[in-house]
Amino acid sequence: MPSSSGQPVYQKDEKALCFHGELLYEAKVLDYKVKDPNDKKDGFVYRVHYKGWKNTWDDWVPQERLRKLTEENKELASNLKKDMDAQRRAASGKPASISTKKRPFGSELTASSARGSEDRSSVAPQPPRGTKRGREIEGIDKGGHFVAKVRFAQRQYGTNEEEFVRRPAVRLFMPDALKSILVDDWEKVTKEAKLAPVPSPTPVTKFLNEYERFELGQRRPNSADADILEEIVAGVKEYFNKSLGRILLYRFERQQFYEMHKAVEAGHGEHAGKTLADVYGCEHLLRLFVSMPDLIAHTNMDAQSVSRLREELHKMTSWLSKRLETYLSNEYQHAGQDYVENVKSGA
What we know:
The strands form two sheets. The chain has a five-stranded antiparallel sheet. A two-stranded antiparallel sheet has the order 6-7. It is built from eleven helices and seven strands. Helix 5 (about 205-215) packs antiparallel against helix 6. By secondary structure, it is α+β, with helices and mostly antiparallel strands. It is elongated and about 70 Å long. This is Chromatin modification-related protein EAF3. InterPro entries: Chromo-like_dom_sf, Chromo/chromo_shadow_dom, MRG, MRG_C_sf, MRG_dom, MSL3_chromo-like.
């Protein structure tokens, strides 16, 4: 994200945050220089000293590894540290500091979470007529890993089943407020036979557009940062549309999905020009965020790209968690006896 003005973004003696590996550390900018003397538009590299580290760790780093020392970025650094600590506890067999007896959709944000306290995973959603359905792999493998998404990953990325299970999960920070909503969502759908309203008054597209508009105001116009944001938002919307019917539904919601999918595909009346992201709400988007670590882990993204994607998704989920009344306050609706009977009969 080179400065469009040809000037360094960080100044000498400025305090900042700097990535070292997967974590952000407080650092001080000691010096800077043009990355390529023949092309000043290529940006700068910065010599940094990590706070509390020996001078032998001082290093020249590209601008992409630095972040301004803002409250938001300090929160990001703290959450990345907590996330890393949780991974280490999990590897050592020690219990995490936050746990829940319930296991709703993605209550633990790793591939090893036994998603499916109810049955989202136990019976793979039947697709609407006219779509091709591959065999789904469901259940828990010998390592305790949930593997219901194998076919989806294989279709998306060409990975085979053994490779899917073998690859490590990528951890993504989820604010506690959103975790709580995921628990409530699971209970309402699987225990109370309720459905989130569809079409939603606050659809995924509305949230993504408003988030993008807000976040673009925090970034330089036409900068690499702004371009990355636009790509991330477009990518989340595309992932949502492609994965909703495959991996984001509980069994009880399938009938609702088929009816809405049929209406969207027909494209008549109020559904003309709409996608699933235009009619489904953030209740289902949360489930995608939970699934993203598994999906990311099975792409060919390099470590730097994964770190940047995690950072962008963290900002997005944090922004959402502070606006629950706007995007996640929709009342779930009782499905009705006819709907329940159709679900039971497999209609």
